[in-house]
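Hey team,

Sharing the N(G),N(G)-dimethylarginine dimethylaminohydrolase run so nobody has to redo it. Sequence (274 residues) first:
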Amino acid sequence: MRTATPRRYLMCPPAHFRVAYSINPWMDPDKPVDPALALFQWEDLRDRYRSLGHTVEILDPVAGLPDMVFAANGATVVDGRVLGARFANPERADEAPAHLAWFRAHGYTDVREPEHVNEAEGDFAVTSSWLLAGQGFRSSPLAHDEAQEFFARPVISLELTDPRYYHLDTALAVLDDTADEIMYYPGAFSPGSRAVLARLFPGALLATAEDAAAFGLNAVSDGLNVVLPREATGLHEPLRERGYVPVGVDLAEFHKAGGSVKCCTMELRPAPAG
Ligand code: ARG
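Structure output:
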C-alpha cells in the first residue's frame, strides 16, 4: 500500500513570468505568455498541494527575473541543509542570492553558497539511496562532487544528451523517496547513463517520447499522489498499476518556458528527527 507523507514546498508566484529570452529549445520570445492564465494555473497547482495536505511556503518574486517562478532551480534542500544554486546562464544569475536570503531569513543555518554551477533540483533528484545528478547542459560535474561532500549522500552522475531535456527533472522523476522508485525517459540520456539507470532501477517506469515531450517527467510525488501535467496521459495507467494516483494539472503557459510541475516546486526536506 502506498502512503502519502506531508511535504513542505517552496513556490514563487509568476508575477514577473514571461518568455523574455531563450535559453532552452522550448523558449520562443515571439510566443507570448498570458500572465493572467499563468497566474491562474500556478494558483491551481499551489492549491492542489494544499488540498493534498502539503505546506506551501512562498518566495517573493523579483522584477526582472522572469524564470524565478521555477523555484526548484534556486537551491537544493536535503536533511535541512541548503546548497544554493549557481546558474549557467547570466539571465538567471540573480535568482540565486534571492533564494539564499529566503533561507537565511527562515531559520536555516546550514547554508552553502556553491562553488560550481548547479541548477539545484533542476539537476538533483533525491531517492532513498542516492542523489541523482544531471549534467550535460546546465550543472557542472564538479557540482556533483560538491553536492556529495555537502550532503554526505552518494551521488550518481547522469549525462543528458537531448537539448529538449536540459535538466534532469525534465527526464526523470522520483516516485517514492523511501524506496528507489523512479520514472524516466531513456532517450534523454547517454548510453552509459541509460545502462546505469537500468542497473540501479530495474523496475522503473519508462516513459514514452510523447509523455516526455508533454513534460510528464516533470512531476512531483508525495509517495502516493503524482502531480503531473495533464497532457501526459500515457503515464496514468502505468502509475495506477504501481499503486500511485496520477493528478493531472494544466501548466501549459509554463511549458512555453520549458518548465512544468516540478520546476515550479522546490521541496524543503527536513532534518532527520532525533
Ligand atoms: N526557462 C527556464 C530555464 O531554461 C526553465 C527552467 C525549468 N526548470 C526546471 N527545473 N527544469 O532555465
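The pocket of arginine is lined by residues 23-24, 27, 67, 70, 72-73, 92, 122, 167, 169-170, 257-259, 263 (CB under 6 Å).

Ping me if you want the raw files.
A.
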